[in-house]
């Protein structure tokens, strides 16, 4: 289950992605690290840590 901070960050990132007309393909929790992976568009991969901080993966 995602943390409250992760859910808030995920909501904000979803809003930004759809505002830029990027489709959201998958949102998934990695059980090993408890990070949320977020794939939007063709090449935008974001990782949301349990504290709500997010980073862009390349």
Automatic annotation (TrEMBL):
Domain DUF6888 positions: 1-55
Membrane spanning residue stretches: 6-27
Any Pfam family the entry gives: DUF6888
Record keywords: Membrane, Transmembrane, Transmembrane helix
InterPro entries, per the entry: DUF6888
Protein name as it appears in the record: DUF6888 domain-containing protein
Organism of provenance: Floridaenema evergladense BLCC-F167
């Amino acid at each position: 289950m995602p943390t409250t901070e992760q859910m808030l960050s995920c909501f904000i990132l979803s809003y930004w992605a759809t505002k830029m007309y990027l489709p959201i393909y998958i949102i998934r929790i990695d059980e090993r690290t408890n990070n949320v992976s977020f794939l939007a568009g063709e090449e935008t991969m974001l990782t949301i840590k349990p504290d709500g901080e997010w980073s862009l993966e390349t």
